[in-house]
Amino acid sequence: MKRLIALLALLSLGVAGCGEKNETVTPSAAHTQPLSLMLDWFPNADHVGIYQALAEGDFRQAGLNVQVRVPSDPALPLKLLAAGRVDAAITYEPELMLARNQGIPVVSVAAIVQEPLTSIVSVGSKHITHPSDLRAKKVGDAGIAYQHAYLTTILQHAGVPVSSVKEINVGDNLVPAMLSGRVDATLGAYWNYEAIQLQEMHKHPNVIRMNQVGVPDYDELVVAVRTSTLNNRTDLIRSFVQALARGYESVRRDPQAAVQNLVSANSGLDQRFQLASVRATLPAFFPSGNDPWGWQDQGQWNSYGQWMLDEHLIANATAFTDASTNELLAGQGP
């Protein structure tokens, strides 16, 4: 979840299947419905489709006046959503399940990044290319409970004694901890951010992806709304989700133009870095096969939820039962 160090680094650098696009006259501001969207953290390449939909008028054409808000803390989006302070929030599948486990009535209505970005990352000189290489090594993370569970699962899957690996909480300082030698690798760095940052620093990073070494697959980034909003303002959220889909489809057609719109709206971002990140992430923005943008595999959600239950991260299955829906996606639902 935490990518502060990569995002701050960026600030210092400069800092088919989604339906037909509505070609009717764009509604005026007076005739659009307001919708507030809270990002999960600072604007970045993961959000490129949001800013593309804003720039190209997809939300306006859907009759929406979308206001994007940026949290001061990544722990805030779901809290503000639950309190009714925003209409929708970008969050993470595991975080949404944790919230539901606490009785917070939220549901995911679309997946933005459809696979884990969280990875085990190390600089090339450490020669860590497989979980077995972590034996007797120091692994840094951000102190998040489910990331600790990731590490345990990965080590057990690889036959590495958990006690042979020293886990160190480095907070947000994932990249500095690797560069300084404080840790040999980190779990929590993203393959589309910190790994690219290290590559550009000529550190030849090695990346071990969670879903390839024992952790169940999950959607890294999702769109969440309150259950009451889903039930009472279904058409509003459907219009928003499908306009957002058009934004990401536009990114796929022209990543460079989309990144320009992202950077134009957020002047502290480094365009070259963002473009590299968007190009790396493009396949993860879309489901395989013929499913529409935003598709959430219910079997996957159940498998990941069961893993969280088995790891005692959540207490009961209601946290993942009906935690996501595809009903609002293009071509789905009534």
- Major β-sheet strand ordering: 2-1-3-10-4
**SS elements, strand count:** 10
The CATH architecture of the largest domain can be given as 3-Layer(aba) Sandwich
Helix segment count? Answer: 13
The overall number of domains is 2
Q: CATH homologous superfamily of the largest domain, by name? A: Periplasmic binding protein-like II
Helical percent range?
25-40%
At the first level of CATH, what is the class of the largest domain?
Alpha Beta
Give the biggest beta sheet. 5 strands, mixed
Mean pLDDT: 91
Poorly predicted regions are: 1-26
> What is the overall silhouette?
globular
Brief summary:
This protein has helices at 4-13, 48-55, 58-61, 76-82, 93-101, 145-158, 174-180, 194-200, 227-232, 234-253, 255-265, 271-281, 298-310; strands spanning 33-38, 64-69, 88-91, 106-113, 118-122, 138-141, 166-169, 185-190, 206-209, 221-226. The chain is of the alpha/beta class and 334 residues long.
